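Reminder to self: tokens first, then the designed residues, so the page reads top to bottom the way the pipeline ran.
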């Protein structure tokens, strides 16, 4: 395995970890449950876990996109993110 491939794997792993964190924060679930949710979306869509994780992180960060990955992330989590944005910070406490 080449160094550039290892770096790409590290980048995907970081995005997966961040996506898990996004779901943990939004759903109040355990990391294992968040990972299982990512896997379900991967199985439903056929999109790789690194790609769907990257799309979720971009979506959560407010980026817009036009890729199939972004569209599937929006379908899976767009409403959840919209609800989270509508809740005032003080009301969440």
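Designed residues (93 positions):
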């Amino acid at each position: 395995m080449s160094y550039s491939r290892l770096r790409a794997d590290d980048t995907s792993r970081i995005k997966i970890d961040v996506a898990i964190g996004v779901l943990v924060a939004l759903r109040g679930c355990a990391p294992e449950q968040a990972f299982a949710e990512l896997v379900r979306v991967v199985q439903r869509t056929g999109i790789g876990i690194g790609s769907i994780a990257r799309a979720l992180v971009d979506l959560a960060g407010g980026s817009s996109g036009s890729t199939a990955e972004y569209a599937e992330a929006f379908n899976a989590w767009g409403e959840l993110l919209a609800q989270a944005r509508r809740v005032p910070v003080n009301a969440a406490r």
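The chain has a mean pLDDT of 89.
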